[in-house]
Amino acid sequence: MSPAQTTRRVRGTHGDYTVVGEAINAGGVGSIFRTTDPKWVYKEYHSPDKAPPAEHLQRLVDIGRDVLIRQGQEIGSRPESSINWPVDVVRDAGGRIVGCVLPAIPDRYFHPTLNCVNTIEFLVMRRSGPPAATYRMVVLLRMAEILAFVHSKRLVHGDVNAKNVAWTLRPEPAAYLIDCDGMVPQDPPPTSGVQANYWTDPRVVDRVVPAQDHYSDWYCLALAFYRGLLLPAGGNLPKVNGTWAAPSQIPDDLDPRIAGLLRRGLTDPLDPSRRPEPAEWVTTLMQVYIVGGKYDDAALAKLDRALGMPKPDPVTFTPLPPTPPPPSPPPGVRPGTRPPPPPPPPSPAPGMRPPPPRTPPFAPPPPRMPPFAPAPPRPVPPPRYSEPPAGRLALWAMDGGIRWYLPIALMTICLFPVAGILALIVLLQTLKVDQHRPGRTPAVVSSSVVLAICAAELLSTLR
């Protein structure tokens, strides 16, 4: 941190954070600031009315803390940790939400030469020099896994577009969903939201629905596959003479299962019931492009030759197993009831390295019920993660600075019995606090030192 940079403290529900310098990025809702902890950034909303509803944001924080803090998952290691979950909420003195704390996007998701996030803009445009089809397919497969997890939590992202999905090829192809603090529940359907040019659901454009919903997320996923896998010229599907254009640049020799998903996802876009769910994309891609536990480079190279793309490099990464499909909505509530997904791909051939074991990120769906049967119960959500509230003395110690160290030092010298009792209370309260909370470790260490000194003075007095 340079001497010219200013710092300020913000207090969240789960800890305090030191915000450094000026905003490093700004959008229509808020601005992003660095903190002294490189793992986190602070998003400050332009005004409290720009903040998400408190109950929605808290639900996201609960999931984010469970995945990233309680489970300690590394960013990008699984679908659920490939989402930029908020992990804390910051309020003003009046209790209004003014910001949230988010994970800092890892360096590997930044463009190698440009000073910006490596979004899928650089994957879907030919002039940006996208990688070979194998790598494009795996990045998009990861994107489908992420949206499958979002759907399993009955959430709507609502703004899936080229700027809100980052990707990388190192150490292996991966995707990362960003701008996630505004995600909302699927039920009731959203009534407001934002849209990005060329990534807006035609149902919103034609005012069939007031805002993008989870079917809109599925439309944008199909659009990402169309643009990112096939690299069509233009790639837009505009409305011409009152009719929405269908995808017209699908190669004749593209596997019919993939072509079928693209046509279902993008043709007749005013009928959301035909759109493939993210989990269906995952299982179909695994069936089509994975043979014996390895990616079918020949089939993907054939696709690149048909598109006139350069020859791909050898593939050295191992595929992940497909994400289990999420529960289907009860019959009659939403259109789009579908048959069960196809079986998973065959096991790797003898002698080949199998994929690493991964437990499913969410529970398998309940069995499908016949028409007009009672709706199956929804899976029980994971227990809400909440840490015990910190005591007032622990908060005093964790704030640190001269307000803590000077009084405790003077009491240790002049009133060591009082200092000892105070240090013991502080220690007991602080040990109950989340170990990731800022200031916890210095408070534990300093109170332990004071307690030891006071104990030594007491023994010396008694001799």
UniProtKB/TrEMBL annotation:
The segments labelled Disordered in the record are: 311-384
Q: Where does the chain cross the membrane?
A: 404-431
Q: Which UniProt keywords apply?
A: Membrane, Transmembrane, Transmembrane helix
Could you tell me which Gene3D superfamilies the record lists for this protein?
Transferase(Phosphotransferase) domain 1
| Biased segments, Pro residues type | 319-384
What is the official name of this protein in its record? Protein kinase domain-containing protein
